[in-house]
User: Fold these one by one.
Assistant:
Number 1:
Amino acid sequence: MRFSALVVGLCLTSFPIGAALAQPAPKPAPTTAPDPALLKVARETVAQMQGDRAATLGSMATPMIGMMQQIGIKEPDKAQVLVQEVVMPTLTAHYDELLDIQARGFATVLNKDELQAIAAFYATPAGKRLAAAQPQLAQIQLAGMQQWIQSVMPEMQGKLTTAIQAHGWAPGGPAKPR
């Protein structure tokens, strides 16, 4: 799920409530470093899951143009230039760092046998096809998540307003005792 963070980030920045809910990721609790052998298997597994590096990075360009527009670069041609000149080279230069972060996460959750089984799947034709399809699947998931959030947003906003008022948190409202 290489795009899960990107998908969540895009979803949170795409909707008004996202700004209220988006918080910096908490620093993980200090733990012992994963076993180097396990970390190596995790890194290999993650790299295999990612598929072709150039294709993975290339699939990020269009969503990044959208993000540029969301942060204020409204003209699509200017957003595209910034993505091509700044964003993509930066992501490319730091891609191995992403793989290392993901590998550490995998190594803390999965054991060596599980990682090897995952790698074995990604070595199959279906696994290779899944890795190649990930960018397209991520875009489909993003569109689905956005559609879903938009469909529940009116209900959620109404319920949030009611809950805020019930707690006395509305501007100028008295605080309700706990």
Note: The chain has nine helices and no strands.
Number 2:
Amino acid sequence: MSSVTTAAPAYRSPPGLLHTILLAGSVPLFLGALLSDIAYHNTYQIQWSNFASWLIAGGELFSGLALLFALVNLLRARRKAGPVLMYFLVLLATWVLGVVNAFQHAKDAWAVMPGGLILSIVVFILVCISAWLGLAARADARVDASNRVHAGGVQ
């Protein structure tokens, strides 16, 4: 009989299903905003700037709600360091820069470039990193639970 020893998980309760849906849903919204900004940069059709503004607003809503869930998970964590804190800080930076990007896109359409495009690139990279960190925590919790079940019963 083999024994499996696992370290204590970083999360007391890993990100839940709604949390992961909100987190993963913010990625395509910010990607759409980035692609709209690229289209606006190439064509100067003002409607692309309007699309980007709406997509940023949706991404901000989703990432803001995910940020609330991340804050609750941070407060409930045994150790308030490591991956739990890193995930929260990256998601917070994503949300704050997303707000700055929304303000940039609220300007006149001709004044959006190039700042809006640069901010959209940075926000998209940050949301991908935060999704990676947040979804990895959920996957780690699933693997940990699976190892406990295979080690001889649920603990």
Note: The mean pLDDT is 86.
Number 3:
Amino acid sequence: MLRTVLGITTRVATGLVSGVLALPRIADALEKLTPLTQVAELRGTLERLEQLATFLANEMPEALHQVESVQHRLRELEPRITALAETTGQLDESIRVLAAALGPLQGTAERLGRPADRKRRTQSLPG
């Protein structure tokens, strides 16, 4: 049994020494593989870019069609928008004229309202 344990221990120790001695060779091999790893990463990136390019190639005509449609519609609406802007300007001017005319009338209405309020109060008093 002791021989078996010693034999296994010797084999394990030899394997470990061999493994440790192989580490520099493994490191060299990995350094040589690094460019291959980078190429694999680049290949994945290129495949993704190809997928995006295909998607854009399929979607761009529709997007351009929609932009052209919106542009056409805006050209149709431009005269109406211009007319609305002019009408809004006219309405603003009318509001200013009405405000200027109503200002003095408001004061007159308040003065006329006071005697009418007094008359109503005196009529509603018991007496």
Note: The radius of gyration is 47 Å.
Number 4:
Amino acid sequence: MNEFSVHDSTMFNAYQPNGEVAADRWVTVRHLFDPGHVETPADKWERGQLLFTSGDYIRAAEVLAEVADEVPFQTDLFLLLARAYYHSAQLGRAEARLRVIVERDPVEHYAHLLLGRTLERQGRAEEAVPWLRLAAAFGGELTEV
């Protein structure tokens, strides 16, 4: 039985603190009556995006980390995972993912910006400066950071 089986109502009936149905429930309901369904990386990606959009950054990071393990070379996935880590104050994990992104794609300006902000948030402002300058340069901003 997988985690979205018809017999396991705990996943389908999850609610947010405000009483609303959790955002990712609409992804899982499509397979409610398909007991043989195995969640694909695309399903997890969609669920992770919905969790991130709804502000559930910790659960989004958990789901997106699973996908990143299965599909390790997707920059947009790593970037969203890093953002989920950043917003859930998992700054060491955010930094590690962002360093992988900038190593793979040295002109991904948002990764440079987020890495700089992540370092600042960890109290490493001096180390953040070059990353923020690169982000500004790649983003077309020529002002001093």
Note: The chain has eight helices and no strands.
